[in-house]
From TrEMBL:
GO terms for biological process: protein ubiquitination. SUPFAM superfamilies: RING/U-box. This is Membrane-associated RING finger containing protein, putative. Residues 28-88 form the RING-CH-type domain. One of its GO terms (molecular function) is ubiquitin-protein transferase activity. GO terms for cellular component: membrane. Keywords: Membrane, Metal-binding, Transferase, Transmembrane, Transmembrane helix, Ubl conjugation pathway, Zinc, Zinc-finger. The chain crosses the membrane at residues 107-126, 146-165. SMART domains: RINGv (SM00744). It holds the Pfam family RINGv. InterPro entries: Znf_RING-CH, Znf_RING/FYVE/PHD.
Amino acid sequence: KQLSFVSGNLWSFQCSPGSPHVYGRLNVTSSSGPICRICHEGDQAGPLSSHCACSGTMGLTHVPCLERWLSTRNTDMCELCQKRFPTVQTRRSLKEWISGPGHQKRALFGDLMCFVVLSPIAFFGLELSVQGASSQATTRHVWQAGSLIMLSCLLLSAFVIWTCTTVKYHYRNFRDWQNVNMKMTLVSHEDATRLNLSPSVA
């Protein structure tokens, strides 16, 4: 096995003598100055700034990179110096939850399809039961009419209970997802003071 550099950041790799060479390029930044500690790009990708107590280039980041990093980790604290960033946390929308990956979305659409299918069936069965009870009542078949009315109430109750339970289940999943996927937005120290954030944050 032999690794050699051809020119610049171009390299070639040969597994054994006589085997073909494999060529590639090193993934290096084109910036010779300070770089963002998250994306490893320089100021050509945007202005670099420091928002924590890390010294030197370790504290330099692009604001969008830092916001995405904090949102992904669901924290407002630097993992190196443990200082809190001046951030405002906002909950993500229902649209973001639905458009995101995961089995929760499939379960939601599955229950929506069940609701679409079961709704007309439930109301059609309820209407038939009410009409049957009405016709039985006019012919003085009290027991048959009472049985149909009871069947109508049971059918309606089962549909309402299933609907409420399903809505509550998905709403709880949505709120849990929001709590662990907060959107972090960096603010200036002046805005942090104006928004009455804690001193450790500001």
